[in-house]
Amino acid sequence: MVTLVPPQMAAKQIIAARVAKELKNGDVVNLGIGLPTMVPNYLPEGVNVILQSENGYVGLGPVTVEDPDLVNAGGQPAGVIPGAAFFDSGFSFELIRGGHVDVTVLGGLEVDEHGNIANWMVPGKMVPGMGGAMDLVTGAKKVIVAMEHCTKKGGSKILEQCTLPLTGKGVVDVIVTEIAVFRVTKEGLVLEELQEGVTLEEAKEKTEATFIVSPNLV
Amino acid sequence: MVTLVPPQMAAKQIIAARVAKELKNGDVVNLGIGLPTMVPNYLPEGVNVILQSENGYVGLGPVTVEDPDLVNAGGQPAGVIPGAAFFDSGFSFELIRGGHVDVTVLGGLEVDEHGNIANWMVPGKMVPGMGGAMDLVTGAKKVIVAMEHCTKKGGSKILEQCTLPLTGKGVVDVIVTEIAVFRVTKEGLVLEELQEGVTLEEAKEKTEATFIVSPNLV
Amino acid sequence: MDKSITMEEVLSIFKDEMTIMVGGFMGVGTPETLVSAVDQSDVKDITLIANDTAFIETGVGPLVVNKKCKKVITSHIGTNPETGRQMIAGELDVELVPQGTLAERIRAGGSGLGGILTPTGVGTAVEEGKEKIKVDGREYLLEKPLRADVALLKAFKADKAGNLVYHSSARNFNPLMAMAADTVIVEVEHIVEVGEIAPDEVITPGILVDKIIVQGGNH
Amino acid sequence: MDKSITMEEVLSIFKDEMTIMVGGFMGVGTPETLVSAVDQSDVKDITLIANDTAFIETGVGPLVVNKKCKKVITSHIGTNPETGRQMIAGELDVELVPQGTLAERIRAGGSGLGGILTPTGVGTAVEEGKEKIKVDGREYLLEKPLRADVALLKAFKADKAGNLVYHSSARNFNPLMAMAADTVIVEVEHIVEVGEIAPDEVITPGILVDKIIVQGGNH
Q1: Which positions of chain A have pLDDT values less than 50?
Q2: Quick one: which of C180, C171, C172, C175 has its CA closest to C20?
Q3: Inter-chain CB pairs, B–D, below 8 Å
Q4: Contact C35, C152 (CB under 8 A)
Q5: B-chain residues within 8 Å CB-CB of D199?
Q6: In A141-209, which residue ranges form alpha helices assigned H by DSSP?
Q7: What digits encode the pLDDT tens for the residues C167-200?
């Protein structure tokens, strides 16, 4: 694939575009910081989602007027669409924990074949805190992990068993990388789709976890 | 005491007037239905209280405009004073259970020397339900029982031990009747005051509970 | 995305044996049009969750009077003598819940909590059959979450996306119940365009509301 | 009953070893004037409860940077590197709490509940040292209530009785913390007369507010 953007950016775009296909019209969606915020750019025609921001509103949108009080969950300037509603942090997490958020899309440091996810700390190195991530993976109806397939050193981020402290246990539904799309099922991890130009061999090589290949792929 | 009102009404007025003296300026007060609602009529000059209504507001006041949506906790038409605030039933009981209501004044079928109160049902006869009463006696900082001293048949309503199902266990602080004022203390029930014209003998005769006579009275 | 529906569509939602939450406090803040629809339907054996059973002829009262319910979960039945009569006659199962506990149980059901730990009711008949949990030396009752298949609510105004505002003491249980049912139907006095309710003033966000009907029925 | 106070009166309230809750999310909705007052006072060994430790120079960040705190209870410290540095160096005790759990623990502290039963954190490091309660077959963590001696809050507007309204995403933890502290001090952009905020629009009722100061200090 010839592209004019740097390979890493291309990877992120591929991931965001594929995640967008998981969303349905009318879904209430919470997007983690970074890559997940790119997802709305790729929504298919006719699919509109309502973005929830855990710092206290539904109806997150692009910045329209300058308002220092209005930021997204990453602390960046934000806007709201018509029909938005503000509330306090308690109510925000009532929505999240109570299953009123249809989909959460968030990044991961590690994910494993049991649906575990680790994305909130690296002991001794980086301890930012979990923020709202633990509530999101516990409460959202569908948890999509959107991340690059491998670490910068080339190691698989999709493991047999997470090694970092967990954000949630058995909570992940879908994993989207620039290599493939996996679903976590009772039978185990299922490879559902290969991204364009990726071979099954490459996916196997880059994935530590054991996975079943979906019948659709063979 | 010569009076132009019927004796029972006089009793209620005496009780309400005495309860009013228990309230301090600025207190947040929740009044039960019936007799307790007469208390504000007797507030001393300079004492203003804020009335909380458990169906969802602070700032209960007299009816000023007709509004079918605005009732008190007894379902009767009500009004609000300037500075009032409406909220939902969850928040209303956050206030009540959380100790943000300074005083609750409510009637009783029975009260006992352990500070127990029964006022929500008579098995086999009357089972209206507890409404907000159990939360109020549990959460309000000060619980005042305002009731006539005896049943219609002349039996004491201040007992050694309640016989009816309890509304709250060890929750009562003050008992005001037309005969006397008692406080519930760690040492037991203390007779603090006799209403005008009442003798200690009469109070003893009409009270089943054992009580200590306050040193102020002897 | 206009959430308005007709009364026929409303009626198609009700099923026998459903659990239905209805907002209101002694009939104030109760969706009378929706209650009347249930009352006139063939639906039976409802489990009704409401603060009180109101009066014989108003609020949720007629649902009890006309024997639509097999069970009522409520804090007060004293203003509707028919509820007490059916209860004592063994015709109706009544679960009496302290009002604050009822509110919290509904909130827990709507917000993914496993239950609540409340001091209310400790040492009373309310604790019977319930787990008691000690936290830092004080006893609390573990009261379980409540949810419903359908919530019937009353708001003052909705925009077409379902954002709601309420009026004075008619708010009561409505915002809590909006969280705790699979299908949330709201009866309103006015429907306005999206954008007409300021985001800071919304009490119930539209994402919680499935269907809207105007008081008296949509035309 | 005017609740306005001067900055001198505010300063007299702070004591060493106090537990202080501060509203805000990455500095948005944080009472900067009040935080700055604490920062410039001699007060030390505070236990700080806040959603996050914001940034080096804004929000509650300076309270950490200037070593006012012995402990911080928070959900996120990633934007203020000094918090992590002090934590790793053993200079500061940091209790990390999932954001929704932090909100619920504060609400429980303010509303008389014995704690909360949440599924969040089950199977993670968050469950260490905590009681697990099974309700209907699912496990929940028992998370304990949080309260403070003083809450420092930010609102958009107050009336003189302390009724508050907030502006957009600056609401966040402020209404919850208003319930859960012995003394509640609010910094506002505007003070208006009692009656100017409609009762249906009040978010935090004045009975919860003890003191009000205008942003930048009262005159």
Answers
A1: 1, 3
A2: C180
A3: 53
A4: yes
A5: 57, 59, 80, 84-86
A6: 200-206
A7: 999 999 999 999 999 999 999 999 999 999 999 9
Which residues does B204 contact at the CB level (< 8 Å), separation at least 6?
none
Q: How confident is the model at residue B4 (pLDDT cuts 50, 70, 90)?
A: low
Residue C30 domain flag: yes
| Residue B2: pLDDT over 70 | no
Contact predicate A19/A27, CB 8 Å: no
Cβ separation of C176 and B92 shorter than 8 Å? Answer: no
Give the ipTM of the model, two decimals please: 0.96
Residue count (chain A): 218
Query: Which candidate from D28, D75, D101 shows the least CB-CB separation from A129?
Result: D75
Spatial CA neighbour of C130 closest among C144, C120, C119: C144
Alpha-carbon distance of C192 to C46, in angstroms, equals 33
Q: Which of D110, D199, D208 sits opposite B84 (nearest CB)?
A: D199
- Evaluate whether residue D120 is within a structural domain: no
Q: D67: domain range?
A: 7-114+145-214
Most A CBs within 10 A among C2, C159, C192, C207, hence the mutation to make, goes to C207
Q: How far is B168 from chain C (nearest CA, A)?
A: 6
**Of the partner residues A68, A90, A134, the one whose CB lies closest to the CB of residue D98:** A134
Is C116's Cβ below 8 Å from some Cβ in A? no
From C66's Cα to the closest Cα of chain D, the distance in A is 34
Two structure tokens written together for D129:
């040292």
The whole-model pTM stands at 0.97
**Mean pLDDT within B158-183:** 98
Q: Which tens digit of pLDDT belongs to each residue from B190-213?
A: 999 999 999 999 999 999 999 999
Q: Provide, as residue numbers in chain A, all residues whose Cβ is less than 8 Å from the Cβ of D156.
A: 69
Q: How far apart are CA C198 and CA C193, in angstroms?
A: 11
Task: For residue D157, list chain B residues with Cβ-Cβ distance below 8 A.
Answer: none
pLDDT of res. B1 = 47
Asked if residue D90 is part of any domain, the answer here is yes
**Regions of chain D short of the pLDDT cut 50:** 219
Where is average pLDDT lowest: A99-113, B5-19, C136-150, D121-135?
B5-19
Max CA separation in chain B (angstroms)? 53
Identified catalytic residue from B22, B54, B110, B148 = B54
Q: Is C219 a residue whose pLDDT tops 60?
A: no
3-state secondary structure string, D136-182?
CCEEEEEECCCCEEEEEEEEEEEECCCCEECCHHHCCCHHHHCCCEE
- The nearest CA of chain B is from the CA of D36 a distance in Å of 29
- What is chain B's length? 218
**What are the structure tokens assigned to C68, written together?**
């639509």
Give the residue from chain D lying closest to C143, CA to CA. Answer: D135
Stretch B38-43: mean pLDDT, rounded?
96
Report residue B125's pLDDT band, with 50, 70 and 90 as the boundaries: confident
Contact check, Cβ <8 Å, B98/D163: no
Report CB contact under 8 Å: D117, C142: yes
**What's the total number of domains in chain C?**
1
Q: How far is CA D101 from CA B95, D75, D85, in A?
A: 20, 9, 25
**What pLDDT does A1 receive?**
47
The CATH number of residue D62's host domain is: 3.40.1080.10
In a domain, C35, yes or no: yes
Nearest CB among D28, D75, D172 relative to A130 is that of D75
Tell whether C2 is within 8 A of chain A (Cβ).
Answer: no
Q: Do C112 and A87 touch (CB under 8 A)?
A: no
Domains of chain B with bracketed CATH? 7-213 (3.40.1080.10)
Give exposure, D24-39, as e/b (b: 16+ Cβ within 10 Å).
Answer: bbbbbbbbbbbbebbb
Can you tell me the distance from the alpha carbon of D11 to that of D5, in angstroms, rounded to the nearest whole number?
A: 10
List the structure tokens of C19. Answer: 């659990």
Interface test with B, best of D202, D204, D209, D211 (most B CBs within 10 A): D202
